[in-house]
């Protein structure tokens, strides 16, 4: 924390971290100051100090619904880190299918789903797999940002979001709506969106465990103690033979020992440890 930052803004940074887990980087302090001034004025407060005090006391609880979308990162697009999705299609799904020959069910959790590009990519990928035709599968997608979830439920995306969707899939699963692309109702019906704050475990989810969990590009915004709490909870929700994917630049090295890294060739994943911990050498980030 820089010494010259106004005490009210220092308190706001702390409140945001406690509420969402997100650590506001110093590079965003000027934006935070401008945003706080606008919100204070818009809510009728005479100063940022009064505005922050009201947030801290809980006098303006509903304000968090407007504030969280402004301070959380929602940068995403379809088929982001395509090597992970290709690995899921080529290796993970066949393994899960083989292990669920009797239950015929696959449960997936997309954590911090933002506007829905990640879970929708997964839904398209699963819908394309003919081997899954007779199998029951569903995707639970969560985020702390209610505004982002509302956008995800609408399923409308701009050119940049769909730029990496293969043309044949774009034509099959999207309809043009002026300057936007609308995700097909069939795919949207497979995704169940829920509000969930990763900064405050334990997590309330519709199923007790998940076969595939994507927790991508989230941990980098959390401090180490919260990273450990989140990963511990996620590990409890991961099925014994399930897979966890992080962002391409993220690792669980020095965070926990319950899950072990699995080298899948073009990317890494994590599974429940099959043996005693061994010294990790997977501290280097993967290519994005």
Low-confidence stretches: 280-288
Share in helix: 25-40%
Q: Count helical runs.
A: 10
Give the structural class: alpha/beta
User: What's the gyration radius in Å?
Assistant: 20 Å
Sheet with most strands: strand arrangement: 6-2-1-7-8
The biggest beta sheet is recorded as:
5 strands, parallel
Tell me how many strands there are: 10
Query: Hey, roughly how much beta strand do the residues contain?
Result: 15-25%
Specify the oligomeric state. Answer: single chain
Our measurement of the CA-to-CA distance between the termini, rounded to an integer number of angstroms, reads 29 Å
What's the helix-strand series?
Answer: HHHHHEHEHEHEEHEEHEEE
Q: How does the overall form come out from the CA principal axes?
A: globular
Mean pLDDT: 90
Could you walk me through the main structural features you see in this protein, from its secondary elements to its overall organization?
The protein has 288 residues and is α/β, with parallel strands linked by helices. Helices cover 39% and strands 19% of the residues. The protein contains ten helices and ten strands. The protein has helices at 7-20, 29-42, 48-57, 63-71, 82-99, 117-128, 146-154, 167-173, 185-188, 224-237, and strands spanning 105-110, 136-143, 156-157, 174-177, 180-183, 191-195, 210-215, 238-246, 259-263, 268-272. It has a five-stranded parallel sheet. A three-stranded antiparallel sheet has the order 3-5-4. β1 (105-110), α6 (117-128) and β2 form a beta-alpha-beta unit. The longest helix is centred in the first third of the chain and has 18 residues, at 82-99. The protein is globular and about 60 Å long. It starts with 6 loop residues before the first helix and ends in a 16-residue tail after the last strand. 34% of the residues are buried. Mean pLDDT is 90; it is low at 280-288.
